[in-house]
Amino acid sequence: MTNSSKRVGSTGFSRFVAMFAKEFIQLRRDRVTFATMIIVPLMQLLLFGFAINTNPHNLPTAILLQEHNDIGRAIVAALENTKYFEVSHIAQSSAELDHWIKSGEVLFGVEIPANFARDVRRGDNPSMLVVADATDPVAAGTALGALDGIVKTALRGLHAIPLDNSSTPPFTISTQRRYNPAGVTSLNIVPGLLGTILTMTMLIFTSLSVTREVERGTMESLLAMPIDPLQIMLGKITPYIVVGFAQAAIILVAGVTIFSVPVDGSLALLIVMTILFVTATLSVGYTFSTIARNQLQAIQMSMMFFLPNILLSGFMFPFSGMPGWAQVIGELLPLTHYLRMVRGIMLKGADTGDLSTQIVWLTALMLASMAIAVTRFRRTLD
Amino acid sequence: MSDQENNSSDIAIQVEGLTKSFGDKVVVRDLSMTVHRGQIYGFLGPNGSGKTTTIRMLCGLLTPDSGRGTCLGYDILKDSRLIKERVGYMTQRFSLYQDLTIKENLEFVARIYGLRSPTRAARDAIDRLGLNGRENQLAGELSGGWKQRLALGACILPSPDLLLLDEPTAGVDPKARRDFWNEIHALAADGLTVLVSTHYMDEAERCHQIAYLAYGKLLTHGSVEDVIRKARLETWTVTAPDLHALAIELENTPGVDMVAPFGNSLHVSGRDRQVLERTVENFKKREGQVWERSEPSLEDVFIDLMQGTSDNFSGAAPR
Ligand SMILES: Nc1ncnc2c1ncn2[C@@H]1O[C@H](COP(=O)(O)OP(=O)(O)O)[C@@H](O)[C@H]1O
Ligand SMILES: [Mg+2]
To answer: Are residues B35 and B55 in the same domain?
Structure first.
């Protein structure tokens, strides 16, 4: 036989390379899929960017003035000056104020209590209340953020007000978020989006990978060759790690640009954690692929897995507010742990030590699903 | 175990009592066969007779319900991983990657088998197959004949000891078929064992040994001459003005087990020589009929075997 047909000793790695190269070429050649990988994350980000109005104006506001005087008027004027608040309703009682907020007619309720002016002039630092409907956390968050400025400037130039260079401000505004007390802000949305987009695309792409071979008939040849389920799995997953990484980069860059999200912690750590999460999610998708009988089933399984990821990972609802059983399910989802990691790294500057629990969980979930995939992989056509 | 013995012996495949069913349908029943090294072994039988299923059991793609055997000396039940290292399997349906080029497909196979230089191995194979200039064409865009060449090329790339070819010439034009068989003979001359399934009768003549399967049963095996001799079939050729009417009449005549039209004549065969001869004597007296004693063809034998089995089959298991 010819010299080129000589075999080398250890071929486990060569088989992995064979699979990897093949998958990569197929991926590159499948233009629709390839475009989807780049366009889906961008589209979602842009949709969020426009649909969630991050800089809303003239939000309907109800006010309840327990007394009528120059200070009250100045504060209301200052509120309207921020352009965020537009006084649309004048309430006569707290009950009326509550009713309007509850019914959604207004997003904010402002209450200035009795004796407010007197207390300000005495330097007692009284407090007024702003209630926000935080169902739309972004709108509520931005507007509430503007309140700080009012405290200092609203009363400037009024008669007999303690100087604003004194240590205590003339009054305080206590805010109350209703319906979404955790106050998920845009800062929370970007990490969430990063995680959910990755979950969705990674799941779908790998969940099809084995069923596709079965449906195209190529599985018969593949199974007749001396390659093991582990090499097949690694060869099929690895190209998508690269894709997942590219997606994450796109989302992050766009997120930082559109939402001005900071990355307080280490970027390198974020990258490593993203790769870990991507691999874990790919393994889950691949596991579905080994269980599903056809591509439709694979997609259905991915969707069934995707839903709890959205609902129970802490992306949609604050994790700590969920009932115990939901938290248990949540802990079993890679996204839950990734969200904590990303929020930790991006917003709180968390380091490896802070994230050790999440790292262990993600690694365990990844290995468990890989083990299931390798054992569930059908080595015969029976 | 006998594994080691067989490994060095000249037996490539030896199986006993292989049985496989899907649901309650028995697809292969109690199949035993032996294939010697260096032989071209033809696997004949109509569609659905269990050829593909048998081949899949030989290379570990299907697990037999019962039976045992060895392939290249390895146990087909336990050592399928080792069998796969040494066997090239060409599937009935093209099963290389349609969205990879010829070169990429071959390199993929070369890497899977751990060839030292996958790129060179692929290039050598392309030269050998006469696929030069097409190496960057997607496999899915090739015509049937070229697909078949590529599939064969991929099978022999890792220099296996045994080739399992499942209807490799189905849907391929006559010239490509002839080239293909020449190639198979060249490979066998180099010591490769080839098990090839087909339903073309003329291809049976090109095999050293054949086996005939119908309804999952191996009905006969041996060289073409053996098979014909064993059938003990007496065959006459008759030409007559109205062949169709004659065929219908003959079918209901004692001593005639099978009537098959061949061009302008009929092949009339029977297992009972004396009864058939008496019948022929009667017919010879008729106007315009020319009767000649002839050799039964392989096809006559198979049709006869099939009729016997289908009768048994439907009798044994009414559906
Ligand atoms: N995976 C399967 N599930 C159910 N029936 C099958 C399966 N594979 C083959 N069969 C049936 O087994 C019979 C024999 O098939 P096969 O071995 O492909 O025959 P051949 O290759 O001789 O045409 C056919 O009737 C076919 O429908
Ligand atoms: Mg077949």
So the answer is: yes
